[in-house]
UniProtKB/TrEMBL annotation:
Name the UniProt record assigns to this protein: Cytochrome P450
InterPro entries associated with the record: Cyt_P450, Cyt_P450_CS, Cyt_P450_E_grp-IV, Cyt_P450_sf
Membrane-crossing segments per the record: 44-63
Positions annotated to bind heme: 470
Length: 532
């Protein structure tokens, strides 16, 4: 990480006051011995002249050569806007409309200039396929400096090549079928506890509550925190600070976002480290008790990673950062999808009725009684379709960034090496000809034997694709299904404000936070009984 003074010295001469200071000190030397300085200036000039001439010729040659290397194809259409700020102001004013407008004007590949850097935006199944399948050949992963620093070098997101493969393999252990089955009871308990509290409080802000709930689910199932302890409860706030400051100017100045984010990172890593030490000790006890035939502890993701630490050659610091990465990667994304589920199920009474009917026929509509299993969830085709449709219509991750390694041709345009590129998931879903009535919420399209039952990988890609596809997608889908089942069978909810405006940054969410009123099924039943 470059510190401020380094950044300062890199400024061009006109902007860097230190350059002025250098000439000031020269002036002082001059005034001390003027004649000496004049002679030495002349001889210096003679000495450097040949070097200057060679340098100028080399530059002229290089310039000529680089002109030859000028792109043979045109750059994608679009505008780079004003110097330095590019089109950032238009984006701020227009929001999501900015991208829709450019896509309508320029098509599926266009250039713009946002947040200080020129960028090429790409959508459409064929273009996205080309990018996602060319990782490390044509493109490589790109994250802004602040994100890289706050997540750390030990993460999957920041790794490239073999290191990336090794870390991904390690993480995948935490999301195999067996692991998911072990997380399921904890997931279900946390979801139920939250819903029960919402019903007691009666009115809550849906988006914030979904964020709290997804953090609790991840913290308990992935890192093994006890979210009922005061110590771990206080981490919800620390984690919010961490996430809020991920995208910021990377300057370590007290009081600014980056500094706050780094302090939150430090605190989270300490807690994760303590949890790791506890687990390492527990593993020793467990090994001993296994020998004497006693029970085994149920496993969270961190324990699984710890067990295979030697095999995966992970250092303790990598392990801690991987756990932090899991907390982050699954947080706002899953919370956004859960919030969209609350919204869509409320708006579409017909869909809600079909979910209720499916739960009834699967013997799962028993209030809060039935424990869910992987098998019972696996048979819920309609619930699965509802989750899929929410991720199609409101994909939590709009797209992701890459750096272009090698210039290539896309739709007849030059995509030049060194540029930043983003592939867009939301635009790809919205323009796909695979989906009829693309803007309507229609889970039936995903039922077996219907038009989209065979998912086309690059028309529908809420979890990305290729070597960087989401590691936690099965975890996320499982959680969302549990949420649908529990919310539908245990309560009803109403929007307090029917006029819902959406914001898409950093993930889709209602601008007003989605105030909701909740009634539990049991209290609704007793109300009916009393009325009778
Ligand atoms: C609905 C919820 C989620 C959505 C929509 C989602 C979406 C995505 C997408 C689109 C990518 C690919 C980004 C790229 O191309 O660079 C990704 C990567 C990733 N996701 Fe998720 N994700 C979700 C939940 C989760 C969860 C629950 C976890 C873990 C607990 C997770 C862990 C990761 C990791 C570690 C990566 C980086 C993979 C790599 O670079 O190889 N995600 N996710």
């Amino acid at each position: 990480m470059r510190n401020l003074s380094q950044t300062y010295l890199d400024l061009p001469a006109v902007l860097n006051p230190n350059v002025g200071n250098e000439s000031t000190s020269m002036d002082i030397v001059k005034s001390d011995s003027d004649s000496w300085t004049f002679l030495s200036d002349l001889s210096l000039l003679r000495a450097v002249m040949p070097t200057v001439l060679v340098a100028v010729s080399l530059l002229a040659w290089y310039y000529g050569a680089s002109l030859d290397k000028k792109p043979k194809l045109p750059l994608p259409p679009g505008s780079l806007g004003l110097p330095i700020i590019g089109e950032t102001l238009s984006l701020m004013f227009q929001g999501q409309r900015f991208f829709e407008d450019r896509r309508e004007r320029y098509g599926s590949v266009y250039k713009t200039h946002l947040l200080g850097s020129p960028i090429i935006r790409v959508c459409g199944p064929d273009n996205v396929r080309k990018i996602l399948l060319s990782e490390n050949k044509l493109v490589t992963v790109y994250w802004p400096t602040s994100v890289r620093a706050l997540l750390g070098d030990g993460t999957v997101s920041n790794a490239i090549g073999n290191l990336h493969r090794t870390r991904r393999r390690a993480l995948q252990r935490a999301f195999c079928y067996e692991a998911l089955s072990e997380y399921l009871p904890v997931m279900q308990k946390v979801v139920r506890d939250h819903i029960r509290r919402w019903c007691l409080e009666k009115v809550v802000y849906g988006y914030q509550e979904c964020k709290n709930m997804t953090f609790a689910v991840s913290a308990e199932t992935l890192v093994g925190f006890n979210m009922e302890s005061e110590k771990h409860k206080s981490l919800v706030h620390v984690f919010d600070v961490f996430v809020e400051n991920l995208f910021c100017l990377p300057f370590q100045i007290p009081g600014l976002g980056f500094s706050k984010g780094m302090s939150a990172r430090k605190r989270l890593l300490v807690e994760i480290g303590e949890s790791l030490t506890g687990k390492a000790k527990r593993n020793d006890v467990e090994e001993a008790s296994n020998e004497s035939g006693e029970f085994a502890f149920s496993q969270d993701a961190m324990s699984r990673l710890l067990e295979a630490q030697g095999e995966d050659s992970l250092t303790s610091s990598e392990l801690r950062e991987l756990c932090l990465e899991l907390l982050f990667a699954g947080h706002s994304t899953t919370a956004s999808a859960a919030t969209s589920l609350l919204l869509q199920l409320n708006k579409h009474g017909d869909v809600l009725s079909k979910v209720q009917a499916e739960l009834k026929s699967a013997d799962l509509s028993l209030g809060e009684q039935g424990d869910l299993t992987m098998a019972s969830l696996g048979q819920l085709e309609y619930v699965t379709a509802v989750v899929k449709e929410v991720l199609r219509l409101s994909p939590p991750v709009g797209g992701a960034y890459r750096t272009v390694l090698k210039s290539f041709n896309m739709n007849g345009y030059e995509i030049p090496a060194g540029w930043t590129l983003t592939y867009n998931i939301r635009d790809t879903h919205n323009t796909s000809d695979l989906f009829s009535n693309v803007t309507s919420f229609d889970p039936d399209r995903w039922l077996p034997r219907s038009s989209c039952s065979k998912e086309d990988k690059f028309h529908y890609l809420p979890f990305g694709g290729g070597t960087r596809a989401c590691v936690g997608k099965e975890f996320a889908k499982l959680f969302l299904k549990v949420f649908v089942v529990e919310i539908v069978r245990s309560c009803s909810w109403q929007l307090m404000n029917n006029d819902v405006n959406m914001s898409y940054l950093p993930v889709p969410h209602p601008v007003d936070g989605l105030p909701l009123s909740f009634t539990s099924v049991s209290s609704a039943r007793s109300q009916v009984a009393m009325d009778m």
